[in-house]
Amino acid sequence: MPTEESHGLSEDELEQIEQRIRSATVLPWFSWIAGLNMEAGTNCIELGSLETLELRGGTVADQEFIAHAREDLPRLLQEVRALRVACEHGCATSTVEQAMPALQLAAWKSPSA
Q1: Rounded CA gap, 94 and 55, in Å?
Q2: Peptide bond into 74 cis (omega under 30)
Q3: Is 42 a member of any domain?
Q4: Number of structural domains found in the chain
């Protein structure tokens, strides 16, 4: 695990994140909060398979964070990789849309793709 002094993520760390993403239950995940988006019951996260994940302790904000991480982390990982490819190609870009052609080209040229 990186320390606070570390700078950036290694490719190995990105691969570990990607593996955790692939291992998690598929989308969609929904956060159900009693009194907010359901009348009564236990706060839970509904997983893509209609199973639920009930949390003990924590806050509603913690539950929302966990539920949205399933969608947010893949997007963040894609953004990091796209920006790295753009930097390798000398682009000064700040969006995935601008970096995506370079990312797709790199994936196409990759021997593992």
Answers
A1: 36
A2: no
A3: yes
A4: 1
Q: Is-contact 85 102, C-beta < 8 A? A: yes
Global confidence as pTM: 0.65
Give CA 95 to chain center in angstroms: 17
The pLDDT value recorded for residue 112 is 46
Full domain range(s) for residue 89: 11-109
- The mean pLDDT values, 10 residues at a time, for the chain of 113 residues are 62 94 88 78 83 86 92 92 81 58 56 44
Q: Helices (DSSP H) in the chain: which residue ranges? A: 11-23, 60-88, 96-109
**Distances in Å between the alpha carbon of 110 and those of 101, 106, 107?**
14, 6, 5
Return the pLDDT at 110.
47
